[in-house]
Amino acid sequence: MEFTGKTVLITGASSGIGRELALRISKDGAKLILLARRKNLLEALSAQITGNGGSSVFYECDVSDRNNVRKVFGEIANKHGNINAAILNSGVSARTSLETVDSKIAEVTFNINVMGLIYCVEALTGSILKTPPSIIAGVSSLADGRGFPKSGFYCASKAAASIYLESLRIELAQKGIKVITIKPGFVKTPMTDKNEFEMPFIMPVDKAVEIIYNGLVKEKRIIQFPFPIVFGTYLLKLLPNSLFDFFALKHLKQIGNTKGQT
Q1: Global model pTM greater than 0.85
Q2: 34: which of 13, 61, 62, 155 fits an S-S bond (Cβ 3.0–4.6 Å)?
Q3: Residues of the chain under the 50 pLDDT cut
C-alpha cells in the first residue's frame, strides 16, 4: 500500500509507536486522523505535522468506551468520508504484584488492549463508515505466546488480541479487507520506560517504526521484530511446561517482588 493521498487513522497516536508512525506516514502526503485520550499531546503532534507541510486532524477518544468510539467515528465519517487504512495502536502495559491480584488493573488492561481493538473494528466495519478501510492493522506483542511472571494481564490481553486479529484476517479477506498483525518486541517508549526488568534487544522507536512502516507498505500479514526475540518466543512456545516453569521461576526470583503498576 502506498500512503500518498490516502486517509490513515491511527489510535494511540499521542506518544510512542503511534506518534512516531504518524510522523513517518505524514511524510508520504497522507491525511492523518489521530486518536488518543491525551488531547494536549495530540494537538502538539498535529501542529508538528502541519508545520512540516503534512495534513492531520485529531480527536480525543477513549477506545475502551464503546459509546465514545462510536461517537468519534461517526464524526470522522461525517467530516472526512472514507478511511483507507486504520492502525489500531492503543494499548497499555501492566505489572502485577505477588501479594495480590488487582482486578481493576486487569479491567483497564483488557478494556484497552482487547475491547478497545474490538470497538474500533466494529466501528470500522459496521454501519458507521459507508466503505470500510482496505487495511486494518492491529498492534499486539511478542509477549502473546506465554504467560510471563508478573505480566499475566498484559500477556493474556495480547494473546487475545493476536488470536482475534488472526480470525479477523480470515473473515475480512472475503470482503477485500486486509488485516495485519503487528507484534513488536521491546521498543523504547514511555510505556517501556517504567519497566524495572531487563529488556533484551530493546529497539529505538524510530527503528521500530521504520520496520512497521515497511511492513505496512508491503502489506505483510504479520509484522514481528526483532528476529532474536521472534525466534526466542517461538522456542518458548515449544518448551514443555515443566521447563518453562523452571526458567520463569528463575526469572521471577531475579526481578524480585515489586508492586503492580499500569
Answers
A1: yes
A2: 13
A3: 257-262
Residue 150 covered by a domain: yes
For residues 33 and 57, the answer to whether their CB atoms sit within 8 Å is: yes
**Contact (Cβ atoms closer than 8 angstroms) between residue 84 and residue 31:** no
> Residues 9-38: pLDDT tens digits?
999 999 999 999 999 999 999 999 999 999
In eight-state DSSP terms, residue 113 is I
Task: Flag whether 2 is in a domain.
Answer: no
Residue 254 corresponds to which cell in the numbers above? 531475579
Domain around 60: 7-255
What's the pLDDT score for residue 200?
86
Residues ≥6 apart with Cβ < 8 Å to 243: none
Q: Is residue 148 part of a domain?
A: yes
C-alpha cell at 236: 518458548
By the 8 A CB rule, do 132 and 231 touch?
no
Q: Name beta bridge partners: 225.
A: 184
Amino acid letter, residue 141: S
The pLDDT score that the predictor gives to residue 178 is 98
Parallel, antiparallel, or unpaired for β 222-225 and 178-184? parallel
Looking up cell 492491529, which residue turns up? 138
Which three three-digit cell numbers place residue 182?
503487528
Can you give the CATH number for the domain in which 68 is found?
3.40.50.720
Residue for cell digits 486487569?
Answer: 106
**Alpha-carbon distance values, 19 to 6, 7, 105, 178, 217 (Å):** 18, 16, 25, 23, 18
What rounded mean pLDDT belongs to the chain? Answer: 91
Does some domain include residue 111? Answer: yes
SS3 of residue 101 by DSSP:
coil
At 98 the pLDDT is 65
